[in-house]
Design a protein that fits this description.
- The complex is a heterodimer of chains A (110) and B (116).
- By secondary structure, chain A is mostly beta strands.
- Chain A is 0% helix and 55% strand.
- Chain A is built from no helices and eleven strands.
- Chain A has strands at 4-7, 10-14, 19-25, 31-37, 44-49, 55-58, 61-65, 71-76, 85-92, 98-100, 104-109.
- In chain A, strands 2, 4, 5, 9, 10 and 11 form a six-stranded mixed sheet that branches.
- With 116 residues, chain B is mainly beta.
- Chain B contains no helices and eleven strands.
- Chain B has strands spanning 4-7, 10-13, 18-25, 31-37, 44-50, 53-57, 64-70, 73-79, 87-94, 106-107, 111-115.
- In chain B, the strands form two sheets. In chain B, strands 2, 4, 5, 6, 9, 10 and 11 form a seven-stranded mixed sheet that branches.
- Chain A binds chain B through residues 4, 30-31, 33, 35, 40-45, 48, 50, 88, 92-103, and chain B through 4, 6, 9, 40-43, 45, 90-92, 97-99, 101-110, 112.
Chain lengths: 110, 116
């Protein structure tokens, strides 16, 4: 079945640094979504991508839908302490199911 | 209330207990989902309901029993659970079940379940 490989698994960075994480798949997806989950809460949608090559920003966050439709990345610029959390990618292919990556745990040192 | 709500937020139960998790969405969506989130693992889709009809059951043990009385409410009935069932149970909703533009899933805060 379809699987996603998300990396890195965890990151520990200094406040103000930029962050980059990505997801890759062995199969094609039609939609890529990026979620953030705070401790004790459910995932919250950050960015949705619907077209290969699409580059979308949401404040300090930027995400891209890879040209091959098998990957996506999320960048966070000038990180701040409230960026701490777990970031999940999710892809939706022809099955209509949303497949999630394993998550990237981000810690930001003030 | 707005968005997707879940109750209770925390639940501790013994293996012989029967309990229910509740989810309510105020978004006018037609599809609702139950996910299980265990540490260090991707979210696992358990059940999908579309217009109150169960359309997907991902090989979930029968000790988990979903119920969708209307398009706004979703329950997960639990009985004779095992300690390995301890996890965060997340409810989500989307406009429709089928893949498509602007059909993102919106999640509730989850119920942290501990089975003793």
């Amino acid at each position: 079945g379809q699987q996603l490989n998300q990396s890195p698994q965890s990151m520990f960075i200094q406040e103000g640094e930029d962050v980059s994480m990505n997801c890759t798949s062995s199969s094609i997806f039609n939609t890529w979504l990026w979620y953030k989950q705070d401790p004790g809460e459910g995932p919250v949608l950050l960015i949705a991508l619907y077209k290969a090559g699409e580059l979308t920003s949401n404040g300090r966050l930027t995400a891209q839908f890879g040209i091959t439709r098998k990957d996506s990345f999320l960048n966070i610029s000038a990180s701040i302490p409230s960026d701490v959390g777990i970031y999940f990618c999710a892809g939706e292919g022809n099955t209509g199911k949303l497949i999630f990556g394993q998550g990237t745990t981000l810690q930001v040192k003030p | 209330e707005t968005g997707v709500t879940q109750t209770p937020r925390h639940l501790v139960m013994g293996m012989t207990n029967k309990k229910s998790l509740k989810c309510e969405q105020h978004l006018g969506h037609n599809a609702m989902y139950w996910y299980k989130q265990s540490a260090k693992k991707p979210l696992e889709l358990m059940f999908v309901y579309s217009l109150e009809e169960r359309v997907e059951n991902n090989s979930v043990p029968s000790r988990f029993s979903p119920e969708c009385p209307n398009s706004s409410h979703l329950f997960l009935h639990l009985h004779t659970l095992q300690p390995e069932d301890s996890a965060l149970y997340l409810c989500a909703s989307s406009q429709d079940r089928l893949a498509g533009l602007y059909n993102e899933q919106f999640f509730g805060p989850g119920t942290r379940l501990t089975v003793l």
